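[step 3/7] inverse_fold.run input=structure_tokens len=264
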């Protein structure tokens, strides 16, 4: 196989059994990276997914089930990455959930879960992979934030707080590694039509008594001037760029790919 930009490297993408995480995992595998997939409680046929990706891209693909709310499961996953694939060179902190309610109605357990999965898990994975990245003087950490890490929407207080926090973590860690070959950046997507956003579409259609298509258009019209969804493939291409040598001075950036959302 021809040498590709990430040949011989290992990428861990958390929450990569669907949506954006799976799209980014595919893009990194297409660049030659061996991939450790992660998910929690998925109903999908993970063995089949692993076999399909390995065949399509000719790389090693492993999977580790870990609940991102549990530090000891995160530790076990990083240890597994070391044993199975030689350690993590590219870390994509992608696992995330959201819940919509005004703050006075926000269930405390939902707040705790959103902060744990969207923010605290990135602290744990980063602290665990950084010693090896420093030792090798090469590494890439990409945190999946959101336009909601830059601007707010009503009803998403935990998500907005977690994503703003994740951008803060990104900047601090980028400064801590600034003189090394390790870079830390965040990607801030606008709406991507994954299961997470499909639920918003379904809720909007039910609330307003409109079709699914009308609900999609309404969601985009509210926020995304380009009028179309960002795709996991587009985000994967950005992740590949951030992993490249050409991007070695891109540090501590919160890079929005959002059809113009935060330019308004
Ligand atoms: P998704 O619901 O399609 O996928 C979420 C992934 O997270 C799944 O693989 C799931 O197994 C995993 N996950 C959920 N809870 C977990 C847990 N406790 N432990 C481990 N894994 C868990 O979501 P998505 O839309 O692909 O979102 C991926 C990331 O991108 C999230 O961080 C999300 O906040 C962010 N994001 C999404 C959008 C969008 O429009 N879809 C926009 C901006 C940012």
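[step 3/7] decode complete -> sequence:
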């Amino acid at each position: 196989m021809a040498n590709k930009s990430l040949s011989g490297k290992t990428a861990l993408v958390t929450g990569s059994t669907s949506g954006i995480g799976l799209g980014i995992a595919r893009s990194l595998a297409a660049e030659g990276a061996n991939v450790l997939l992660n998910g929690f409680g998925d109903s999908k046929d993970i063995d089949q997914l692993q076999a399909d990706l390995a065949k399509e891209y000719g790389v090693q693909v492993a999977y580790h089930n870990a609940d991102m709310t549990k530090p000891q499961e995160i530790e076990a996953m990083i240890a597994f990455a070391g044993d199975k694939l030689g350690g993590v060179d590219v870390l994509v902190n992608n696992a995330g959930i959201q819940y919509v309610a005004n703050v006075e109605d926000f269930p405390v357990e939902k707040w705790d879960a959103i902060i744990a999965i969207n923010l605290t898990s990135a602290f744990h994975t980063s602290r665990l992979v950084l010693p090896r990245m420093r030792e090798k003087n090469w590494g890439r950490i990409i945190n999946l934030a959101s336009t909601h890490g830059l601007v707010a929407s009503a009803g998403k207080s935990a998500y907005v707080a977690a994503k703003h926090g994740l951008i803060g973590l990104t900047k601090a860690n980028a400064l801590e590694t600034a003189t090394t070959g390790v870079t830390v950046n965040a990607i801030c997507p606008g709406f991507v039509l994954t299961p997470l956003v499909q639920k918003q579409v379904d809720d909007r259609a039910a609330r307003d008594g409109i079709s699914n298509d009308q609900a999609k258009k309404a969601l985009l019209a509210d926020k995304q001037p380009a009028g179309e969804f960002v795709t996991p493939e587009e985000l994967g291409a950005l992740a590949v760029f951030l992993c490249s040598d050409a991007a070695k001075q891109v540090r501590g950036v919160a890079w929005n790919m959002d059809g113009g959302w935060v330019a308004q």
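[step 4/7] annotate
The two ends are 45 Å apart (CA to CA).
The helical segments are 19-30, 46-57, 71-85, 108-136, 157-176, 195-208, 212-223, 232-243.
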